[in-house]
Write a structure and sequence with these properties.
Number of helices: 8
Strand content: under 5%
Number of strands: 0
Shape: globular
Number of domains: 1
Largest sheet: none
Structural class: mainly alpha
């Protein structure tokens, strides 16, 4: 398996896991099966879709490869069937999500650099790819997006994408760059969960008159 196939395999695992977490979020809002599929799909591929629309990267991956969209829909519906046991898999999904975040961030940066766009734009697109699926999911579920107030998430995507762009600029071998970015991004996210690292919060209230 070459590096492209390896990244693709990790990406597929990541989007399927995200589809299932999206389906669970829809279930908490007592949505019907159509809602479950829609929320599962936007969670899984929303970030990549937003990225490609912004940088003009066509065709969108789920249009070029409809089988991915079908697999995501099936994963979302499967979640409904196995929902009673999902609580026992929460730690596994945290690990897969951490790995998926690193993978999505790297892929976002990779695709942007491949189009010859500015490195800073590549970093931003890495963050968009990593976090916007969850943002759209939470908006659909009428919740404040978790990435804005929970353990470090967007910051992990920023670190991972930024590191990849830096190593690319330094002409580091691609396989070594992937190993470093995926490993460090994954570890960073797990430590953030374990130690409950967060960014400083901004509290503002209007003064009473």
């Amino acid at each position: 398996m070459d590096e492209a196939q390896f990244i693709t395999a990790l990406w597929v695992v990541g989007i399927l896991a995200e589809a299932m977490t999206g389906a669970l979020a829809a279930g908490r809002r007592q949505m019907d099966l159509f809602g479950v599929v829609i929320v599962g799909c936007v969670t899984a591929i929303g970030g990549g879709t937003v990225r490609d629309l912004l940088i003009g990267n066509y065709p969108l991956v789920w249009i070029a490869h409809v089988e991915y969209l079908l697999a995501i829909a099936v994963a979302a519906l499967l979640t409904v069937a196995i929902a009673p046991v999902m609580r026992y898999l929460s730690r596994l999904f945290l690990v897969i999500d951490a790995l998926g975040l690193a993978v999505f961030s790297v892929i976002g940066a990779q695709k942007t650099l491949a189009l010859g766009l500015n490195p800073l734009v590549a970093v931003v697109m890495g963050v968009v790819t990593g976090v916007f699926g969850g943002v759209i999911r939470d908006i659909f579920c009428q919740s404040l997006p978790l990435v804005f107030h929970r353990e470090l998430y967007a910051a992990v995507a920023l670190f991972t994408a930024g590191l990849y762009v830096l190593l690319d600029h330094l002409k580091v071998a691609t396989d070594l760059s992937l190993l470093l970015c995926l490993g460090l991004g994954f570890l960073f996210r797990l430590l953030a969960i374990r130690r409950r690292w967060t960014l400083p919060r901004f509290h503002y209230q209007e003064s009473a008159h």
